């Protein structure tokens, strides 16, 4: 979909919609939202809805970043501690590596 | 029509590419056939044995002719990692060098050389089953000094080996010649290896399990969605037992039992190679022969006349912390073994274990075969003294065996350890007296204990290939000695003499009077039995003792049945052979056809429809039976595998084992290809950039309508939305 062809109120609606969907534990939607509407929020000449779009873009970006941080920490901890956790580590694993701890 | 032509063309193209690819593969690699790989086993706390990486271990071939070669490999070699190609004679000297500095070692290819055979070769610990020993054991594999049973043991069977090891038997010496040729062509210039094409080996033996039994069993049990993979199985198989007289719930209390035991299994580091001649087979054959002889001395119908019974038992899995005997001792302590008429410790008058007795057969050519009877009591136990006296007097006519008693609680590896741990109260006090017969005192006389080289030649066995009559009558030892077929020093004769002495001793125990007849164990039977277990399962005895129903199939392979206990999920053939031999040789032959035979059900007996001596089928009534030789560790729910109380060995699962030799490129070609690739990419980028800048020189200025924004975005819109 080409945002440049969309009227401004539709843009806001779309941006808000993406933000709301992202609230359903879908950080990737937030990330898409932030990237997609970044130009609209910060680079286009000002228009009425831009302030709200900016708000959603910032919140989406912050949410996605928070998710990334949390996931990165979890992945790091899991990879480093899986063996030490023993049975818990194995039951948390989807694919248990063969031939090593 | 046209499309059809294209299809044909495509087909030709595809097949030709395939064929070519195969040829190219064959041109590069030459596979090494007939090798046996070291694999991984795990116990409650550790992993032991070898594994390669997932895609195999690759290393430059280096033939180890002396210790210096091994030292050069780990310290000075530059084109590493390396595959050490070592003969069995060199192995003991170099293995510790590789184990201490494994960084430059990709793996080891071990080969057996006919002209250069080792004087000792054992991958078992210096103190086998040390951690399942009963109190009083002083053998320590870690502390120097003291009595060590297996002096030349490397202990690799119980250690984690950081690289794969493959073993090539003597029969595969042509593969070694192939590697030698390749090695001499490419690798001889040791100082100038780096950067040149080198003869290399790839060993692939990737093991699925890791860490310890607890972890691998847990991972085998958890069925994740994507990986329902079993990574390890508990070791185990079957114990075999047979009583002279039938034992039922009603009659068992009236008779006390002499328990005579030996073991079936042996082990080695390598998959499928566990000959175990001196380690276990001589003991097992002695037991089977003695049981056969005793059944001839005392007919089963005399059961009511006697107050005593004899229970012959063959344990399996003894190599791995006494799996079979631990289970039996545990079951006796719980009052559930044997299943039909459980024994209580008080029923057992005496436990005689025929331990490792084959080692001394390699030493002497005469009729001498010295024995040591280990008696773990300081006070006098009348049953044991009586037994040893009777053995000595029954052996007098032949001067074999001469038994030297050893009064010590430091017992050689044997099932006595299991009984003394699990039935501690009765065994230590002497209520359940135990005695162990072995052929050594302080150290094993068998220098190939549980190794790939513990073969029939090591006990000087030479098969005589005599025919057995249709009625299953064996030529007597005396007749064979008289006609010169066998000599006094042959293992067949020695084992038959020992079995005779043992059978007569047990006769005396059961009947209360010394045997006065002239029935002896036949060296002919021993000859056949040794051949079956050491050289070929396609032998007369096993053919006769097999199920008649399986006669339609092909005869078993002309190789010995593996004596490694294997995993509990698969029944190994060796114990089944031993069980059927017991049934055929000691059981009563009934005049019944197959249908009748299958319906018979007298308590205390079981019935087998076996092929028989003339292969026409025979109904055998026997007291022989089998029981699970699976460690109590796997039978007790919520057992803590790391507790070390019971054997906790498991074996890893693997997918493929393979070895191949090839010439690895020196790296020059790969470097040139990479360089050319980089240059081409840079050139293309520069060219594109130049074309982009100077497009107007090549292309005429485009018409205005084409670059119309509206049209372009119109196209984009239709594409995108």
UniProtKB/TrEMBL annotation, chain A:
Q: Which residues cross the membrane?
A: 17-36, 56-77
Q: Give the matching InterPro entries.
A: Gamma_Secretase_Asp_P_PEN2
Where does this chain mainly localize?
Answer: membrane
Entry keyword Transmembrane helix? yes
**Record keywords:** Membrane, Notch signaling pathway, Transmembrane, Transmembrane helix
According to its UniProt record, where is this protein located? Membrane
Family of the protein in this entry = Belongs to the PEN-2 family.
The molecule here is called: Gamma-secretase subunit PEN-2
Q: Which organism is it from?
A: Chrysodeixis includens
Taxonomic classification: Eukaryota, Metazoa, Ecdysozoa, Arthropoda, Hexapoda
Automatic annotation (TrEMBL), chain B:
Against InterPro entries, the record matches this protein to: Ncstrn_small (IPR041084), Nicastrin (IPR008710)
Main location group: membrane
GO cellular-component term (any): plasma membrane
Query: What residues does the Nicastrin small lobe domain cover?
Result: 37-209
One Pfam family, please name it.
Ncstrn_small
Which biological process terms from the Gene Ontology are attached to this UniProt entry? Answer: Notch receptor processing; Notch signaling pathway; protein processing
Q: How does it sit in the membrane?
A: Single-pass type I membrane protein
Residue ranges annotated as transmembrane are 670-691
Q: Which residues form the signal peptide?
A: 1-21
Q: Which PANTHER family match?
A: NICASTRIN
Output the SUPFAM superfamilies linked to this UniProt entry.
Answer: Zn-dependent exopeptidases
Q: What protein name does the entry list? A: Nicastrin
Annotated localization: Membrane
Family named by the database record = Belongs to the nicastrin family.
Q: Keyword annotations for this protein?
A: Glycoprotein, Membrane, Notch signaling pathway, Signal, Transmembrane, Transmembrane helix
């Amino acid at each position: 979909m080409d945002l440049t062809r969309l009227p401004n109120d539709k843009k806001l609606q779309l941006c808000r919609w993406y933000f709301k969907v992202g609230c359903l534990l879908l950080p990737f939607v937030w990330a898409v939202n932030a990237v997609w509407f970044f130009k609209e929020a910060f680079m286009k000449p000002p228009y009425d809805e831009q302030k709200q779009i900016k708000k959603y873009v910032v919140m989406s970006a912050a949410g996605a970043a928070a998710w990334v941080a949390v996931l990165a920490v979890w992945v790091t901890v899991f990879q480093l501690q899986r063996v030490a956790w023993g049975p818990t580590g194995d039951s948390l694993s989807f694919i248990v590596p063969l031939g090593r701890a | 029509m046209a499309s059809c032509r294209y299809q044909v063309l495509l087909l030709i193209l595809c097949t030709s590419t395939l064929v070519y690819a195969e040829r190219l593969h064959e041109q590069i690699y030459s596979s090494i056939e007939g090798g046996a790989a070291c694999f991984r086993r795990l116990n409650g706390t550790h992993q032991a044995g070898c594994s390669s990486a997932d895609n195999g271990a690759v290393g430059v071939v280096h033939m180890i002719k002396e210790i210096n070669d091994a030292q050069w490999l780990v310290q000075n070699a530059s084109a590493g990692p390396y595959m050490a190609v070592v003969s069995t004679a060199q192995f003991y000297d170099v293995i510790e060098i590789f184990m201490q500095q494994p960084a430059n070692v990709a793996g080891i290819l071990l080969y057996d050389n006919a002209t250069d055979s080792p004087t000792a070769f054992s991958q078992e610990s210096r103190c086998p089953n040390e951690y399942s020993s009963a109190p009083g054991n002083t053998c320590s594999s870690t502390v120097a000094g003291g009595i060590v049973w297996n002096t030349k043991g490397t202990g690799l069977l119980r250690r984690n080996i950081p690289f794969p090891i493959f073993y090539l038997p003597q029969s595969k010496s042509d593969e070694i010649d192939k590697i030698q040729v390749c090695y001499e062509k490419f690798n001889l210039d040791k100082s100038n290896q780096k950067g040149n094409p080198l003869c290399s080996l790839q060993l692939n033996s990737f093991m699925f399990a890791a860490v310890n039994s607890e972890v691998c069993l847990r991972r085998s049990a958890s069925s994740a969605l994507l990986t329902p993979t079993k990574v390890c199985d508990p070791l185990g198989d079957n114990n075999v037992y047979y009583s002279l007289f039938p034992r039922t719930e009603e009659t068992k209390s009236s008779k006390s039992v002499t328990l005579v035991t030996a073991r079936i299994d042996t082990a080695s580091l390598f998959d499928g190679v566990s000959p175990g001649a001196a380690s276990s087979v001589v003991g097992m054959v002695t037991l089977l022969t003695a049981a056969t002889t005793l059944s001839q001395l005392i007919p089963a119908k005399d059961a009511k006349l006697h107050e005593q019974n004899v229970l012959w038992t063959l344990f399996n899995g003894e190599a791995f912390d006494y799996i079979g005997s631990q289970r039996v001792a545990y079951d006796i302590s719980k009052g559930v073994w044997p299943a039909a008429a459980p024994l209580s410790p008080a029923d057992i008058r005496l436990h005689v274990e025929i331990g490792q007795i084959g080692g001394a057969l390699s030493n002497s050519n005469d009729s001498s075969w010295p024995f040591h009877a280990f008696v773990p009591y300081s006070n006098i136990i009348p049953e044991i003294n009586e037994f040893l006296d009777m053995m000595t007097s029954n052996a007098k006519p032949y001067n074999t065996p001469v038994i030297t008693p050893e009064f010590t609680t430091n017992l050689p590896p044997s099932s006595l350890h299991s009984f003394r741990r699990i039935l501690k109260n009765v065994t230590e006090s002497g209520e359940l007296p135990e005695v162990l017969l072995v052929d050594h005192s302080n150290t094993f006389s068998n220098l190939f204990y549980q190794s790939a080289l513990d073969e029939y030649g090591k006990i000087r066995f030479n098969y005589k290939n005599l025919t057995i009559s249709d009625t299953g009558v064996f030529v007597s030892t005396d007749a064979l000695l008289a006609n010169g077929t066998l000599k006094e020093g042959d293992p067949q004769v020695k084992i038959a003499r020992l079995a005779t002495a043992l059978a007569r001793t047990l006769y005396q125990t059961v009947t209360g009077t010394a045997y006065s007849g002239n029935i002896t164990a036949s060296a002919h039977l021993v000859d056949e039995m040794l051949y079956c277990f050491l050289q070929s399962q396609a032998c007369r005895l096993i053919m006769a003792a097999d199920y008649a129903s399986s006669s339609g199939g092909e005869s078993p392979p002309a190789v010995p049945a593996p004596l490694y206990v294997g995993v509990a999920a698969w029944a190994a053939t060796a114990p089944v052979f031993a069980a059927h031999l017991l049934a055929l040789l000691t059981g009563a032959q009934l005049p019944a056809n197959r249908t009748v035979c299958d319906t018979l059900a007298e308590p205390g007996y079981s019935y087998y429809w076996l092929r028989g001596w003339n292969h026409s089928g025979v109904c055998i009534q026997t007291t022989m039976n089998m029981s699970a030789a699976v460690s109590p560790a796997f039978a007790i729910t919520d057992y803590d595998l790391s507790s070390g109380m019971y054997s906790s060995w498991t074996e890893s699962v693997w997918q493929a084992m393979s070895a191949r030799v090839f010439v690895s490129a020196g790296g020059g070609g790969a470097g040139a290809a990479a360089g050319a690739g980089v240059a081409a990419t840079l050139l293309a980028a520069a060219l594109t950039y130049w074309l982009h800048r100077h497009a107007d020189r090549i292309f005429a200025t485009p018409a205005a309508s084409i670059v119309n924004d509206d049209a372009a975005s119109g196209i984009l819109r239709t594409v995108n939305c």
